[in-house]
Design brief:
By secondary structure, the protein is an alpha+beta fold. The protein has a single domain, classed as 2,3-Dihydroxybiphenyl 1,2-Dioxygenase, domain 1 (Roll), CATH 3.10.180. The chain has two helices and nine strands, in the order βαββββαββββ. A hairpin with a 3-residue loop joins strand 7 and strand 8. Pfam families: Glyoxalase (PF00903). This is VOC family protein.
Length: 126
């Protein structure tokens, strides 16, 4: 069944050129398949993220993609994004917030949006 295959998060965007600037320049992702007819496939760790233009861009109000990072890299990744994205805060039962970072006994996380409102997350599990 499907449990044997890798899922590919798929993100709808309004402007593919603006999205590429964000995903490549801000997040540092590298396109893995330039020849995609209607979008760009990025490799991230052992997975992939597909970004494509759609009239439905920005309609998802939940987390679309999460990046799990190792403990020793979390602060470095967050520092690299500070000033480039706006970290979001919200009611998260059991978590405390400090400078845009949520923390509880199990994780530290930040959430932010791409230019089309797709919500991305970076998490380290404690």
């Amino acid at each position: 069944m499907l449990s044997a295959y890798n899922p590919v998060p798929t993100l709808a965007v309004k402007d593919l050129d603006a999205a590429r600037k964000f995903y490549e320049d801000t997040l540092g992702l590298t396109p893995s398949e330039e020849s995609m007819p209607d979008g760009v496939m990025y490799t991230a760790g052992s997975g992939q993220v597909f970004v494509y233009p759609s009239a439905y861009a920005g309609t998802n109000k939940a987390t679309a993609v999460s990046f799990d990072v190792p403990t020793e890299k979390f602060d470095e990744e967050i520092s690299a994004l500070r000033g480039k994205v706006d970290f979001q805060t919200f009611d998260l039962p059991g978590a405390t917030w400090e400078d845009g970072v949520a923390r509880n006994d199990e994780m530290r996380s930040v959430w932010f949006a791409d230019p089309d409102g797709n919500i991305l997350n970076i998490t380290v599990r404690l």
